[in-house]
């Protein structure tokens, strides 16, 4: 009896559970993203612009509609295909794009999105995308300089030509640009060329200027290479020998072009010489690693006539480089690479014709300028921008440089130890050096002797030096032929020379006559 009652209870529970209603699934809305279609302005109302893409998680049937039109320009089918409305047409010049708001609905929920219709004009001109090419100067006529990239908005076939009839180049219908027959490039003549390319689709034409950058190839004649160090030698006799010295202790690996067709490969620092069959002036070029030139006491010193170009040589030392080159002139417009040079001592000593513009030299690494322009009687270049922050020696730098009167008043000479005879015999020099920081100086003997400092400039120099903090004591100043005047100058000189003061000895100057 109990078993029958239990069976009846379980049966009723099963019947009760099975009779409960099934749960209702919640509707999920469709997703419609912003979309863009691109059409030709020739598109007509019978052409489809595009069909919307929509995602419905439940797979429900979707209906489409235009919520916001563009002046009733468009129509759309229930399956989401957009086309032009009857009687409408695109006009690229009036509008390059149109925007409409569309809706996708599953009957319960909907989603909106913006549709952009981009219009491509009819018979638009080709578009040229290339701007420049880079080639080596030794390319041949069979080498392709570059392919001019161009496209036509309507996909029409393109034809290429050179608009300015530039005889140096040619182009084929694939846009491949090359040298014309029997033509060549020369870096030394022109580092770049500009050519006008014309691209046509048969109806419209586009012109584009293309730049062709030429890269240098080091080749003879080396005197034309911008990277070469170039000088000239002059011979007056047949079979006359010229040459130059070098430094065997420094690295050398260079091409030596003597300018008469003789070219040598040099890999050591030994002196070099050459015999010229005929008298004349020859350009001698050095290209490569060349550390130092030495003309001091060289029999060809007076035959060296000019410096034409410094080139890309990384110099190591200029000590006595052009000493005694009395006929040396200067035509270079570039500057030597002094990044590893510390010694310019005697560089132009007794180069009596030299008056080169060396204002653009970077001498910031140099420590020694001793006798650099000694006896360079023509020299009067602007050196006001030179940075002497590391220089220790300028003794006799302008001694007997009888034309020099450059403005050196702002030089940083704070590390200079020796100024002995710096302006001795520089009888055109007349500057106020009172602003020079002489605190590191140990020797100024003969420094101003036989220069041309005026009474005013010499007086102000004494005043400036006496007023410096840290002015050295117990040194001798050479000032032969100079005159000081004025109360402040007298006080300054007395302080400098007072045994209880700075204990200087000043030689050769005089006070101005008292009224």
UniProtKB/TrEMBL annotation:
Keyword set includes Transmembrane: yes
Gene3D superfamilies assigned to the protein according to its UniProt record, in alphabetical order: Cadherins (2.60.40.60), Immunoglobulins (2.60.40.10)
Lineage: superkingdom: Bacteria
Signal peptide: 1-20
One GO term of the biological process aspect: adherens junction organization
Record keywords: Calcium, Membrane, Repeat, Signal, Transmembrane, Transmembrane helix
CDD domains (alphabetical): Cadherin_repeat
Localization in the cell: Membrane
Entry GO terms, CC: adherens junction; catenin complex
One Pfam family this sequence matches: DUF285
Membrane topology: Single-pass membrane protein
Domain Cadherin: 31-128, 127-222
Span of domain PKD: 251-287
Entry's Gene Ontology molecular function annotations: beta-catenin binding; cadherin binding; calcium ion binding
Main location: membrane
PANTHER family for this protein: CADHERIN DOMAIN-CONTAINING PROTEIN, CADHERIN-23
Protein's name according to its UniProt entry: Surface protein
Lineage of the organism: Bacteria, Pseudomonadati, Bacteroidota, Flavobacteriia, Flavobacteriales
């Amino acid at each position: 009896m109990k078993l029958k009652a239990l069976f009846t209870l379980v049966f009723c529970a099963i019947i009760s559970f099975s009779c409960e209603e099934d749960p209702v699934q919640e509707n999920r809305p469709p997703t419609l993203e912003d979309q863009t279609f691109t059409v030709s302005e020739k598109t007509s109302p019978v052409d489809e612009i595009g069909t919307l893409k929509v995602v419905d998680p439940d797979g429900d049937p979707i209906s489409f509609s235009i919520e916001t039109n563009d002046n009733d320009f468009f129509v759309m089918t229930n399956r989401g295909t957009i086309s032009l409305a009857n009687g409408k047409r695109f006009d690229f010049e009036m509008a390059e794009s149109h925007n409409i708001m569309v809706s996708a609905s599953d009957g319960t929920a909907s989603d909106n999105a913006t549709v952009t219709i981009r219009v491509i004009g009819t018979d638009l001109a080709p578009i040229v995308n290339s701007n420049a090419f880079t080639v080596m100067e030794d390319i041949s006529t069979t080498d392709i300089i570059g392919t001019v990239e161009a496209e036509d908005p309507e996909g029409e076939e393109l034809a290429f030509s050179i608009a300015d009839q530039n005889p140096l180049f040619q182009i084929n219908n694939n846009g491949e640009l090359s040298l014309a027959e029997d033509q060549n490039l020369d870096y030394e003549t022109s580092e770049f060329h500009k050519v006008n390319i014309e691209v046509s689709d048969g109806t419209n034409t586009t012109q584009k200027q293309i730049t062709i950058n030429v890269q240098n190839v080091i080749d003879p004649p080396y005197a034309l290479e911008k990277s070469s160090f170039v000088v000239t030698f002059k011979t007056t006799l047949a079979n006359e020998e010229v040459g130059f010295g070098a430094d065997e202790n420094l690295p050398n690996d260079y091409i030596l072009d003597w300018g008469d067709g003789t070219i040598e490969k040099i890999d050591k620092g030994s002196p070099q010489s050459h015999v010229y069959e005929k008298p004349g002036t020859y350009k001698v070029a050095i290209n490569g690693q060349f550390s130092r030139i030495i003309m001091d006491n060289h029999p060809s010193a007076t035959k060296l006539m000019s410096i034409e170009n410094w080139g890309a040589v990384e110099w190591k030392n200029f000590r006595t480089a052009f000493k005694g080159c009395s006929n040396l002139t200067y035509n270079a417009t570039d500057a030597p690479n002094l990044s590893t040079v510390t010694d310019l001592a005697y560089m132009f000593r007794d180069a009596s014709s030299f008056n080169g513009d060396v204002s653009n030299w970077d001498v910031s690494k140099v420590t020694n300028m001793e006798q650099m322009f000694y006896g360079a009687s023509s020299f009067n270049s602007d050196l006001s921008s030179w940075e002497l922050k590391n220089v220790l020696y300028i003794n006799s730098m302008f001694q007997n440089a009888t034309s020099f009167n450059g403005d050196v008043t702002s030089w940083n000479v704070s590390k200079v130890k020796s100024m002995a005879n710096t302006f001795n015999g520089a009888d055109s020099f007349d500057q106020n050096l009172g602003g020079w920081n002489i605190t590191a100086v140990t020797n100024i003997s003969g420094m101003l002797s036989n220069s041309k400092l005026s009474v005013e400039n010499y007086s102000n120099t004494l005043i400036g030096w006496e007023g410096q903090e840290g002015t050295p004591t117990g040194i001798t100043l050479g000032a032969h032929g100079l005159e000081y005047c004025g109360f402040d100058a007298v006080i300054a000189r007395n302080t400098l020379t007072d045994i209880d003061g700075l204990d200087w000895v000043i030689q050769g100057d005089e006070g101005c006559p008292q009224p």
